[in-house]
Amino acid sequence: MKRNLFFSKKIKYRYLIFFSSLVILTISYLIFFFININKSYFVIDNKISKYSIIPKDKEGKKIDYLDKKSINNLSNIEKINLNNTEFLKFSIQLFSDTNYKEIEKYYNNFVNLKSQLISLEDLFIFSIESDIGKDYFISYKNFSTKEEALNFCLKSSIVQNCLVINPNN
What we know:
Alpha-Beta Plaits, four-stranded antiparallel sheet, alpha+beta
């Protein structure tokens, strides 16, 4: 009896064809991938078509007063006493809001709670006007350097979270 040492069973040709085609497809995909890996993904033509031009007159209704803010209420202008901030170099921000009534409320509450720890001359109320609107700030003390203000923050128990600001910049 003759024995086949290398193959114990006969190989079915269907499996052989399937696996060989799978290997050939994988190899061809890898070759295609490595050839095209350094090429650009897409190319934009220099031609300008009529669909990519933005017309000057976009038609439609023109909106008047586009640069005005609807949240401003000019009829309710009141005189607000603000400190002069030209001499302030660095200060610790206590509170900030766009509504001056909230600033007054916080200021009165802060003074009532910590009147024995602070002097009123060290509290500054000022406003900064930007494109968005007017922001009001309450700050504490005037420091010559930022490091001096940060050292005061670490040693002081007046404020839990310190934010050092320079109101003139």
